[in-house]
Amino acid sequence: MAVTNCPAEQARFFLEANNGNYDRAVAMFYEQVPLTHRAVPPVRATPPRPTAPLAPVAARPVAGPVARRSGGLLRTLLRIPVEATRISLGLVLSVLQAGATVLNAVGTAVLPVSVMQRLRGSVRALTPLHTEVEPAQAARIFIRGFADTYGNARPEWAESSWQDAAARAHTEFKFLLAYLHSPNHQDTDRFCRGTLCSPGVVEYVNANFVAWGGNIRFADAYRLSSSLRVTSYPFVAVLAFSGQRTRLVSAVEGYGSPTELIDHLFRAVNDHGAYLVAEQAEQQERAYNRQLREEQDAEYQRSLQADQKRERERAEARAKEELEAKAVAEAAARAEAERQAEARRQEQLAAALAKRQQDKRAALGAEPAAGPGTANIRIRLPDGANHQRRFLAADPLQRVHDYVDSLEGFSALKYCLATNFPRKVFSGTDLTASLAQLELAPQAILFVQPIDD
Questions:
Q1: 21-35, 51-65, 82-96, 266-280: segment of lowest average pLDDT
Q2: Can you give the residue range of the structural domain that contains 97?
Q3: Short-list 59, 54, 58, CA closest to 240
Q4: Do the Cβ atoms of 149 and 192 come closer than 8 Å?
Q5: Which residues does 187 contact at the CB level (< 8 Å), separation at least 6?
Q6: Where along the chain is composition biased (Basic and acidic residues) (predicted)?
Q7: How many CA atoms, within 13 angstroms, populate the side-chain half-sphere of residue 374?
């Protein structure tokens, strides 16, 4: 931590990856950190669910490598130069990568750290070992490319980083099978088609492991290959999550037949299944202790909740009484306020009616004498009372309104005048029209119809 200025978890990771070798751990740190600038992501600590120990599956006879389909003679002849170029480029890149791996392994043990840093920079400039891609995205790219090349009869690769896949295997009490894919290695295609995708291997791996695969061109798989110090491909590792870290159980480097791979995985499961049994027993003990604490906490919470409930009920009863008393007082206050408001409204209405009657009587003037040019108008109020008065035929209908406003006992502030036969309601511009124009001369009966606000 003092030399690299990194957190304890990251320093512990590099030391464990190099079996406690201080120089190698420092060299790996300076190789990895400048490319990523971040610590090794911690493994999720999701508690696993208790299950039965992993039962090994016996190896089954499997078919040989899948034969490639051949096309016509012309297609074969045209493919020869393309395949030769591809194989040549693949061999060159494989040699460069193998040389870089050997140089890293030997130089770390022999050369000083400063010299190794310069050598690694030169090697990376010549051979770009990996690309920085988000681990889950890198896993999706690998799975899609693997399916496009080798079909869907394959192990069920986890679509996540290898750390998350290891955490998932931990929760399911399984080993993690990690496959590191080197696309340019001469044995990769033969191994994937004939061994890794053979029915027996696929069935055994899917039944007993959480499978994860990664292309070493991407950072996640490259860092795993560096920590496992891989020197040959194809590479299959069996990992177990023990305690708070992931450890290597066994590994297969180079090409092997389906039967050999199944036998190797079968021995790894049988020889190291104690990891899973111990982890399951520890998890069951933790679960029991947690359940015991939860039951004690639940009993305490029930007692506490009972006391709180009684206190809450007493407080609610007091609050209810206070609310009822407050509601009664507010209702009485509202009733008194409404009574006073109604009294004021009645007073204002009476004053307005009295003023209207006084003003309209003063403006109305004397009733004209009977004769030609007059109109005898009978007014029927809403209470059934009848009133009659003569007007000049040339008087506007507003004069009749003024007469109605001056009547004693009439309390409607808004109303309109109407006839029954024919039915007609007078309003708006009708008030300025003369009685003769409205056909209310020489006589007519008008009904007063109050208008509600």
A1: 51-65
A2: 41-52+72-287
A3: 54
A4: yes
A5: 233, 234, 254, 255
A6: 307-318
A7: 11
Q: Which structure tokens are listed for 88?
A: 């040549």
Tell me which amino acid residue 365 is. Answer: G
Lowest pLDDT segment from 44-48, 135-139, 286-290, 317-321:
44-48
Against a cut of 0.90, is the pTM above it?
no
Q: Which amino acid is at 215?
A: N
Domain-embedded: residue 428:
yes
Residues forming beta bridges with residue 237, ordered by sequence position: 178, 251
Please state, in angstroms and rounded to a whole number, the distance separating the CA atoms of residues 79 and 301: 76
CATH no. for residue 410? 3.10.20.90
Backbone angles phi, psi at 447, to 5 degrees: -105, 135
| Residues 276 and 168 occupy one common structural domain | yes
Q: Tell me whether the omega of the peptide bond preceding residue 396 falls within 30 degrees of 0, making it cis.
A: no
Same domain? For 391 and 270 the reply is no
Residues 6 or more apart whose Cβ sits within 8 Å of residue 226: 17, 28, 31, 32, 104
Q: How is residue 157 written in tokens?
A: 């690769």
Spatial separation of the C-alpha atoms in residues 235 and 142, rounded to whole Å: 15
User: Based on the structure, what is the number of domains in the chain?
Assistant: 2
CA 193 to CA 205: how far, in whole Å?
Answer: 15
pLDDT above 90 covers a percentage of the chain that reads 42
Phi, psi of 375 (to 5 degrees): -135, 125
| Integer Cα distance of 334 and 372 in angstroms | 61
Question: CA distances (Å), 268 to each of 55, 79, 165, 198, 239, in order?
Answer: 12, 42, 19, 20, 10
pLDDT in tens, 277-310: 777 777 778 788 888 899 999 999 999 999 999 9
